[in-house]
Automatic annotation (TrEMBL):
It comes from Arthrobacter terrae. GO terms for biological process: cell wall organization. Coiled coil: none annotated. Pfam families: PBP_dimer_2, Transpeptidase. This is Penicillin-binding protein 2. Residues 52-134 form the Penicillin binding protein A dimerisation domain. One of its GO terms (cellular component) is plasma membrane. Residues 156-477 form the Penicillin-binding protein transpeptidase domain. GO terms for molecular function: penicillin binding; peptidoglycan L,D-transpeptidase activity.
Amino acid sequence: MNQAIRSSWLVAVALFALVFGSITYIQFFAADDLKNNDLNSRGLIEQFCSDRGAILVGGQPIAESVPSPDKCKFQRVYHQSELYAGLTGFFSRAYGQYGIEKAENAQLTGETADAFYDKVLSLLSGAQPKGRSVELTIDPAIQQMAYNMIPDGQRGSIVVMNPKTGAIIAMVSKPSYDTNVLAGHDATSVAKNYNRLLGIDGIDMFGSSAYTKLYSPGSVFKLVDTAAALASGKYNKDSVLANPQELSFPGTDATLPNYVNGGCGAKTQAGFSFVLEQSCNTPFAEIALDLGQDAITEQARKFGFNDDSLYFPDKVTASKFPGSKGQLGTAELARSAVGQQDVQATPLEIAMMTAAIANGGAQMKPNLVKSIRTPDLKPVEEFTPEVLRQSTTPEIAHQITDWMTNVVDKGIAHAATVPGVEVAGKTGTAEGIPGVVNNNAWFTGFAPAQDPQVVVSIVMSNVDIATGAQLTSPNASKLIEAVLNK
């Protein structure tokens, strides 16, 4: 009799251990794989109907879950949705998650390992489990100011960041859209809205164009050439550069003209400061031909080009040098050196490159998340600045800074001046296809030049020269001044 009881007890213990072990495995080890399985729609439905944490800017929610009268207990709502669409992204039952909604999904649902205890306490107390809040680094006033600077109907992006920490102060793009129309519970209506937005040229529903879209960088890429030249040891601050009005190339009819809208024609030979001030093409093309493609590619890499592994926390599209081709011909390398040909960059990459120069050559990892907070808004994780790479030496960064201040003080970026503040900057014009597409107009810069607090990078797509000049440098001046006066 005792043996039968003992055997039954052992079987019961074994079964209990098996059940407990299975639950533990599913809850802690297999949970992510099961939830992310394409065949598991229940996990997505559960998340879609849950009380997700808020996305905060300046302490206020720009995305939050509110009670819903239908089968789903909660509805995701976006505030100032067009202003923040490129950052928050959206959460749709049919089309998935994008932006911060995707990148910080585990925090917003409260499903990280360290949030498990909070979730258990909520269940035991009978409270509705709620995800954590994600607070962004964005300054709401600067974000709104930058957004208003891009005219409706104009394609463009603006990035404002702190070069010493990598924190994103503002990031905007137009055209934008209302994320609420994709987060509804009416599947027919959501599908109609999704297809309508897909048909609107220029709208990027899957992240801000500031970090997903590639543009020809034009003359802002000359900062890469300058750093490569100084790093090579073949050039220094006293170097005299040939400045012909046109370059021709052996074996081809292709030519590269100098920039015609500045003062390049005044000198056939000039120093670095002058050719940057006036954004002359031919000296930088000759530098690239002298150093070779590998040297320019390596310096571009040190600034972040060709990096396909960057998240901030959403995935950043890799900027490209030399582009789609491998080994370039002479004419192709010359055009690439002035940011044309197949060279492409995101506005975020140009801001990161500029920030590295501002920060003495150290490129900080860009970051959009300031902190993670519990449902009652207690901070559980704070943003910590992180050095991403060393892009140049401090000496090279400081020399380029001096030349960039002359671009604003005496050169073609004079409209970026701020009273009482030394601004370092560089303009760029990437030529489009005559009669088909206009130019990409750029400004990138930072201030104060000797103690940088803010980087501003602006691109306006498909604009003529006059419109591009009006929408870039003057707006950069206003944004720099606004940040410094905070």
